[in-house]
C-alpha cells in the first residue's frame, strides 16, 4: 500500500504523456497506463487485497478517473479511463459502495454524452431514407446495452445496498430535475432503468413516490414507442414497491390516458401492459379500473391503438363472456362518462354514441345477449340525456322508437328488459310528446289479455296446457307496463292526460279489481298517486280561475271509482307494504277531491269499512295514514254541509 498514495500522481503523469505532441512520448504514456491499470486493479481487487485497503485505493483513483479521465477531451484517455473503471468495478465488489454514487452518475451521463453522434444524424434523416424511428431507437438501446458503461452499471447494481441508495437516489433525482431539458431519451432510459432495476428491490421503497412523479410524465410525453416502453418498464418496477394509495393513483392516472390523443392512448396501453407483466400481483387488485378501459379502447378508429388494446384484452381475459359479465357495470359506466364529458364530445363529435362506444355496446350485445344492449341504452340515456338532446333532438326520438319496438317482441326476457329500458328512457329525457307515442302502446299491451296469478298477461284464462305454453310467448309483466305508464304520466302535458282519461281509469280500476299479485297492485297505486300529483299541481297553479271541466270530471271519477277498490285491497292483501302504499294513495285521492270544493259531497259508501280497517290495522304507518283519511272525509262532509246551508240561506 506504500505505492497507493502515489497513484493519483502516477495516473496524472500517464494521462499527460498520452496527450503529448510527440508520438514516442504518447507511446510511453500508453505503456505506463497499461502498467498502472494492472497495479490499480490488483490493489482494488478484494480477492487479492483487504477490503479496507481496496476502499482506500478506490477513494484515491476512482474520483480522478471519473473527472480527469472519462471527461477528458482526448479520445484515447477517455476510452482508457472507461475500460479501467469497468475493471475496477469488476474486482472491487463491496469496496466500491462508498464511491457508488459518483461512479453511477458518471456512467449514466456517459451513456448519452459518449453516444455515437452518427446516430443523431441518422435520426434526423430517418424519415427521408425510410428508416423507422422505433427501429432506430431499439438500435440505440441495443448499442447502449453492449457498452462498457452499461456493463459497469450492471456491476454496480450487484453490490448496491440501502445505505448506498440513501446517497445515490436523492442525488440522481436532483440531477434529473436540473438536467431534464438536455438529457436525451436514451440517457433517461438508462438512468431510470438503473435506479429502478428489479435487482435493487425493496430498497427503493422510500423513493417510490418521487420516482413515480418523475417517471409517469416522461412516459406520457415521450414520442418514441421504444423509449416509452423502456420508461414504462421502469415505472412498473417502481409500482411493485409502491404504497397502495400510490399504486391506485398511478393506475387510475394511467387508465385515464385512454381519453387523450393518440400518444396518450399509446402510453396508456404500454403502461398497462408493463404493469401486467412486471407487477401483476399489484394490478390484480385494480382490474375493475383496467378491464373496462381495455375493452372500450379496442374499438378505437386508429388501428395501431386498437391493436395494442386488443393484445391487452387477450392477455387479461380467458373468456370474453365471463369478463364482460364480471365488469359489465363498470364498462357501461365508463361509456356513459365518456359520452357525457365535454372533452369526449368535442373530440369525436358524437350524436348519441360515437363509433367507438357503438361498437363496444354492439359487442356487449353480441356476447351477453340483446337485453344487455337495452340496459346499456338505458344507462346511456340516464347519464347523457342532456348531451344527446342538445346535439341532435331527433336522436332521442330514435331511441324511443327502437326501445318501444323492442317492447312488442315475443321473447319474454327481451321484452321485460325493453320495458325496464323504456321507463328509464322516458324519465331521462322528460319529453312531453313521449306520452302520445308510448301510452297507446302500453294500453294495448295491458288490454291484450287477462292476468294470470304470476302477474303476466295471457290471452286465455282456462285453456289447455299446450295452448297456455303457446301464449306464454306473448306474456307481459303488467307491473313493468304500469311502471312505464307512471313515467309517461310524470312527463306528459295535462291535456294529453285528460285525452286518455277513459283508458287511464280502465287500467287503474281493472288492475285493482283483478286477482293480481300485490306487487302489480303497488305499481297501479303508484300510477294513481302520480296522476293525482299532476292534477294537484294544475289545480294549485290555477287557484284564481275555475278548474277545467275535464279536470273536474277526472278527479270525480277517481274519487268515485278508486277508493272502494283501494279499501278492498287493504282488506284482502295482508302485506304491510301494500297497506302503506294503498293508504297513501287513498289519502292523496281524498285530498285532491277536497281541493274541488265547493262541490257537493257525495255519500261515501266505504267510510264504515275504512273505520274498521283503521281499528284492526297493525302497521303503525298505515294506521296513521288511515286516520288522516277518515279525518279528511269528516272535514269534507262538514264543508259540504256548510256550503248547503249557505246556499239555502
From TrEMBL:
One of its GO terms (biological process) is ERAD pathway. InterPro entries: ARM-like (IPR011989), ARM-type_fold (IPR016024), HEAT_ECM29 (IPR055443). The keyword Repeat applies. Residues 96-254 form the Proteasome adapter and scaffold protein ECM29 HEAT-repeat domain. Keywords: Repeat. GO terms for molecular function: molecular adaptor activity. The keyword DNA repair does not apply. It holds the Pfam family ARM_ECM29_C. GO terms for cellular component: cytoplasm; nucleus. This is Proteasome adapter and scaffold protein ECM29 HEAT-repeat domain-containing protein. The lineage of its organism: Eukaryota, Viridiplantae, Streptophyta, Embryophyta, Tracheophyta.
